[in-house]
Amino acid sequence: MAIAGRPVAVRLRARVPALTTRVVARLLSDLPVYAELPHEEIAGDIADIVQHNLRLFADVLEHRRAATDGELAQQRDSAAQRAEEGVPLDAILTAYQVGVAMCWQETAQDAGPGDLPAVLEIMDRILVLQQQLTSAVSGAYLEARQILDSQEHGGRHALMAALLTGEDLDGFTRRTGLRPAARYLTMALALAPHPDETGPGLPQGPGAGTASGPGSASGSGAGAGVAARRKIRRIRTALDRFAGTPALTALDASGGTVLLPVAEPPPWDGPGGLRDLIAEATRAAGVPVTAAAETAAPDGVPAAVARNGEIVDLVARTGRAPGLYRLADVLLEYQLSRPSEALRGLAGLLSPLDAKPELLHTLETYLGHGLDRRAAAAALHVHPNTVDYRIRRIDRLTGLSPARPADLQHLSAALVARRSV
Questions:
Q1: How many Å apart are CA 412 and CA 330, to the nearest integer?
Q2: Mean pLDDT lowest for which of 186-190, 285-289, 373-377, 406-410?
Q3: Distance of CA 52 to the CA centre of its chain
Q4: Cα–Cα dist 186/173, whole Å
Q5: Mean pLDDT of the chain
Q6: What is the residue-wise DSSP string for 237-304?
Q7: pLDDT tens digits for 65-89?
Q8: 150 and 158 Cβ atoms separated by less than 8 Å
Q9: Cα–Cα dist 11/105, whole Å
Q10: Which of 230, 255, 318, 376 has the lowest tally of Cβ within 10 angstroms?
Q11: CA 254 to CA 264: how far, in whole Å?
């Protein structure tokens, strides 16, 4: 099939990269929901599906046939992902219509009077393909939404609520027919924001080109919401893969609670351990993940969840790095965070430094780097001698020096206490 003496399929394939950039730019310009999508999604999933559709249309024209069911699998997968992210179906279908219209313009632009039979056949092939795309995309989207809605309001949601609230589980099983697992790995997660949730910027186009146009992405509104949902979906996928069954989750953009049914307490370290799970979740989400975990019987879930939440909060307040923690990792901080008169007394040991924030910051940095003056100096961007001088001033003001073992314990406890009162 040729127009102006040139095979249409060959010309279209050669124009795929440039046409993809133009289609993406048009989506950003004409559809507000696409203009607000994260850069990661525009340059990745959206550009990929546009290219796939263009190459599919070239194949359809070259072989003069309809698309096969297998050739529409990527569109169905893409629609299901958009459903999970909350992208409206009407926006998705409009995007496909925009792409098809631009593809038609590209193939027919050089047509002359003698090309009428080819133009008519191309139009027929486009209409058939558009009908196939609409059917595949709509069906996959609605099926995904139905599954998501049933999960959200169905038995798993009710089971998680019963476990978290400490409901009588025997009565819950009699009423619903749902039986809790023998044990649950309870986890509290704290998720850092993804750059696409907060950082404004113009999405870049696929490949070497740039998707330019009046549309721009921002870290607010629908774009931020989509980025957050993508992050949560990837976390859930990692959790489900680890457990081998759908996890019970209550997650938002900042984190939340996870319950994984387990036969035995999973190992902390080593292949397939919990540290590997958090590392995988971090890679999948593209953001730092802080987690606390504890295995508990069903009746112990509420207490374990509460402890996990306290541990994650303590990790954040004490400035520790993201990663996986358990109670043993924060015993001192946990105990000192319990309300008591001694807590205020410990915090008061450092009150002479209230008017000297640079000394307090130096002390925290020095202790945080294991009393390594050079490492602390590098972190503070000062000379090591400055660190020594400030430590001597701390000693003069408080009577406590990290160089004396007994004082070191008091200083460490006092720093923790200051964050807790």
A1: 13
A2: 406-410
A3: 25
A4: 20
A5: 83
A6: HHHHHHHTSPPEEEEETTEEEEEEEESSPPPSSSTTSHHHHHHHHHHHHTS-EEEEEEEE-GGGHHHH
A7: 999 988 999 899 888 888 877 788 9
A8: no
A9: 13
A10: 318
A11: 29
